[in-house]
Amino acid sequence: MAQASSLDAAHPRFMNPPFPNTGVKTKSTVPALKVALVQMSVGFDKKKNIQVAVNAIYEAKKNGAQLVALPECFNSPYGTKYFDEYSERVPAGETCAALSKAAADTGMCVVGGTMPEKCDSRLYNTCTVWDPKGTMIASHRKAHLFDIDIPGKITFRESESLSAGNKITTFSYCGVKIGIGICYDIRFVEMATLMAKEGCSFLIYPAAFNMTTGPKHWELLGRARANDLQLYVALVSPARDPKADYVAWGHTMLIDPWAKVEASLDEKPGLLYGTIDTKVVQDVRSQIPIRMQRRTDMYETVNKTKS
Ligand SMILES: O=C(O)CCC(=O)C(=O)O
């Protein structure tokens, strides 16, 4: 079961003990992973953003999480005009140093939301992943750039300043194979399919939907990917700031392999806790065996990023 607690940088408060001592499947022979999803406020002060994230990582640890995930653009305002100024080399910059230290200090896996990454003369929207020793074990550059035009509602062209990544990113932690996509990446079922084909039971999407597509598609897409691939999906958003240039939808959520929303936040800052139980993944996949029933003689999704 997943539960929420509130997050405030200065005054952390706990609404619920997130992981009851008896509730987690310690006797199961298949892996289970306690996770915390951080819906934090993001402003113009980069150092403060990093500190809020680090505080949340410590709060997650105090509440028993083994893995903590931050939202898209957690160290920078979201907008093409900000990416260059807030960008850093990966893993050389202050943001990576803070994430590495927080992972090592807490002994948790930290999925570092996203940050603008500078590499040569290019900018990427990049998620870094840190193991409990503080070593970077994966990084994902957003592969599908958010270029849309809904007249009168929202026009956004990430490709004005960002370059796209070109690989599928998965890693293993505590026996659970995990895949990473970033925000708009979730709209592309092929990418999620390839992550599932690599063995993932859990997909994490640091994301920042907006006030137009958020209410229409946020939950729908999360549940669709969970249902298509029969796995857990986490959508991790910044908290909503109505005064920001780009107003995030919020509603961080964890969805189970039945495509049920296990728990979700509203638009305010908070931490969401839940358990990834790979036994549930196995159950759904054996009870509705679509993975065995695909007509690969008719169609197939192929990873072209590998040689
Ligand atoms: O797909 C959407 O509607 C929103 C995507 C987005 O905000 C992003 O990729 O940053």
Automatic annotation (TrEMBL):
Gene Ontology MF term list: omega-amidase activity
Keywords carried by this UniProt record: Hydrolase
Annotated Pfam families: CN_hydrolase
Known catalytic reactions: 2-oxosuccinamate + H2O = oxaloacetate + NH4(+); 2-oxoglutaramate + H2O = 2-oxoglutarate + NH4(+)
EC number in record: 3.5.1.3
Region described as Disordered: 1-21
Signal sequence annotation: none
Superkingdom classification of source: Eukaryota
Domain CN hydrolase, residue spans: 33-278
Family: Belongs to the carbon-nitrogen hydrolase superfamily. NIT1/NIT2 family.
Protein name: omega-amidase
